[in-house]
Amino acid sequence: MPHRGIAFLGTSEFAAVVLRRLARSPHRPALVVTRPDRPKGRGRRMASPPVADAARELGIALEQPEDVTGLELREHEHVAVVAFGAMLSEPLLSHPGLRNVHPSLLPRWRGAAPIERAIMAGDAVTGVTIMGMVAELDAGPIYLQEAVPIGDEDDYGALSERLAALGGELLLRALDEGPGGRDPLPQPAEGVTYAAKITADDRRLDPARSPAENARVVRALSPHVGAKAGDLGAWRAAPVDAQVKPGETAIRDGALLWGCAGGALELLEVQPPGGRRMPAADYARGLHA
């Protein structure tokens, strides 16, 4: 069977950025495979994954199978996988041109939420890994890897944007080298950590933790998920040297403070229950109105 270039498997906005980069290169995918449309938002209206929207904009053939078991794509010379969101199996795992883009310095932060977990943990650096794929989660051999510093003010949005851009460039390098390119290196056995999917519990700020730790949670979950300080959504925040009873809010000199261990968190952008996102100063003024 003749080869038909590249098949691209991805779902998220991160993957859509990489797809657009490939589409502007000689490695423009011939086929995009993504997840089915799902209900989304308060109205539970059907919505397409970001990668599906990008594929339609780019005029690339699109498939959205309910079940990827048995997916093989043998007619494609390369298969690029980026934040697909479903476990792949044989015969696809044995495809010689299979490459996965993962936004961490593997073996640290295998799993679903590597960008969020790196920020939450206070890591000074993360990166992108191009790897082969095996049955074990994110345990495949490494072809390329490059580090990216995490800034003190980086939230998920800013860091994800830089990592996606780098992921596209590294993937192009890997595709240039082709299936017969460099030999991959096995992942080290030491330093393995797992980036579990973000849950409702992860979103809740913990008054028993320090202001710096809670501020990292806010940054890790903005702008896509959002943290919760009690029943108040927290989208931007900063640690401050102030004393507020842990778990309670206070307004001081117009600033909205939330108490936690050893200090307080100044909430800078919030979302009241059932309301819209707003500057915390506006919310604080409304409480006194």
Written description of the protein model:
Helix content is 25%, strand content 27%. The chain has 289 residues and is α/β, with parallel strands linked by helices. Helix 1 (13-23) runs parallel beside helix 2 (50-58), helix 1 packs across helix 4 (156-177) and helix 3 runs antiparallel to helix 6. The protein is elongated, with a radius of gyration of 21 Å.
List strands and helices in order, with pairings:
Blueprint: E1 6-10, H1 13-23, E2 31-33, E3 38-40, E4 45-47, H2 50-58, E5 61-63, E6 78-82, E7 98-102, E8 110-111, H3 114-120, E9 125-131, E10 142-149, H4 156-177, E11 194-195, H5 200-203, H6 211-220, E12 227-229, E13 232-240, E14 249-252, E15 255-260, E16 263-271, E17 278-279, H7 280-288
Parallel strand pairs: 1-2, 1-6, 2-5, 6-7, 8-11
Antiparallel strand pairs: 3-4, 7-9, 9-10, 12-13, 13-16, 14-15, 15-16, 16-17
Helix pairs in contact: 1-2, 1-4, 3-6
